[in-house]
Amino acid sequence: MHRLQAEDTVEVKAAGRWVGAFAELAHTVFVPTDPQLRIVHWPASAEALTGWRAERAVGFGLGTVLSLARATLVDLRSAIDAGIDLNDVLLPARRQGGSRCQLRAGARIVRDEGGATIGVAWSLRLEIPPGTTVPPADSSVLDLALARWTRAFDRLPFPVALVDTVGSVRLANTQASHLLGVEVGRPCCSTLCGAAGPQCRNSRALRSLTPAHWEFETQGKRLDMSALPIAIHGEAPDFVLCFGTPSEPHLSAELRKFFRAVDENLVGVVITDASARVEYANQRASEILGCSPLELVSRDVREFYSPPPYGNSAAHIPLEQGSLEVQVQRGDGDLRPVRAAISDIPDEDGQIANWVILLDDISERRALEARERDLREQVARSARLAAVGEIATMIAHEINQPLSNIANFGRGLLHRLARGKVDESALTDTLEEIVRQIERADTVVRNVRRLARSPAAKTTSADANALINANLPTFHLLARSAGVRIDTDLAGTLPAVPADASQIEQVLINLVKNAVEVCESLPAETRRVTVRTRLAAGGVAIEVADPAPMLSPESLKRIGEPFYTTKPDGLGLGLSISRTLLENHGSRLSVRPQPEGGKAFHFELAAVHEPD
Description:
By secondary structure, the chain is an alpha+beta fold. It contains 17 helices and 21 strands. 24% of the residues are buried.
């Protein structure tokens, strides 16, 4: 009996060797798993294909060993649970060390006599692009490097681990295994960073390309953990070097919590010296400004203002306590609206030693506000169009009757003339009735004009420069979302002008708004609107200039006409209203080319004449 069992064992081993030989000839690896896809046997051919030894594969999930994406693993499990065999499935996998490899896989579900699933037989074959060869696994430069690194890292007195892009531990020294329980092939989140999924600190460090830091306590020891993105296969970081150093013994637990809270704050925190040069920036500040913490150090934080507030250069913008909303130009060139809260830190002598700046990215909020503003403008535009339609219907109704009467009397008179029987009294009556109907139509038109006529301007003595300065915040608000810079070029001494301040302000806002909309289609570096004042003959000249090309002759002829516009979504009312308001002041709107290029909308206001 024992002899028969021994012979069966020999036959099974021989059969296994035959299967392995045929698999090697076909460049295919056969791997059995249980129904939960845990590896039951890991042959030498699988080790050669993936670089993972049997003791690091058997008992682990197939998806974990091959570093399969979560979505791929879910699809595989769904197919197996549904009892579907797989043929020629492409699996984007990774070898030990993180190098990518494409595997062609097949799967057959193995069932017992009762039909219950007892396991899955897998075939794995390397997908080789045409015209390429595959280097042997044992000659991998990365594998040799990892072997050397493991020996070197084992000499370090603190834990070190190497994590790949899918969060699997590829290398761990003795301290990492002893203190943190790190195992090669296991996800890093279970031990190293304590947060799985999108909150995994190692994955976040790799996505943001900035180091991550946190605190970890184990076996009575407190460690300051760091995750540093590094590049092994190319220029782009594809691994994270995770290590923990003993915490500073002189720091209290409260201080450590404070530093951790600052570093992981959802608001950007920047600390500068007295001259506004960055000394520290947390991860959120790096994300907002688009630069790594190392790139931010020693840079003047005001260099990120784009354009600088109120036309000043960065070097002339003083840092003051309070809040400031600016456009920030990130390291990648993208513009973002940011609200900055600034406070100073004095030294022992009361002098400013440092500045603390809290940065809040409000781009999403501004996008929602812009969307809400667009919706309000669409509603207002629809209301105006509806009002215009109602007025047109009213005018048509009121004028239609006198016009119809005029036509009827005219046709009757022509009919009588054709018959040759028209006496003088009948002709007079008909003509008088036609005149009455014409006067009726004229009355309708005059009533409509009286209804639509603007009230007389309530003029007071006004300072043109003061009007412009008072409305600068409104101009900057109009220009900020489009990335347009507002400049002012105001004459030093100007006479007072008689004007209705609210009407002139409306004219200026309309002109600046039009200029900003024109600049949106221009390159970012040329987007500039200039509001200037000059002394003119008998008064003050005001101009709103932009760098866009001069208007065509046809547009110049029709400028200010109601409902005439060159914008696809415009109503043609802004310049028409401005022209009417200026006519109330005895002025007119004109367009003039600029010597440096571009154009300017120009109008003049007469000065106040002092009595002799």
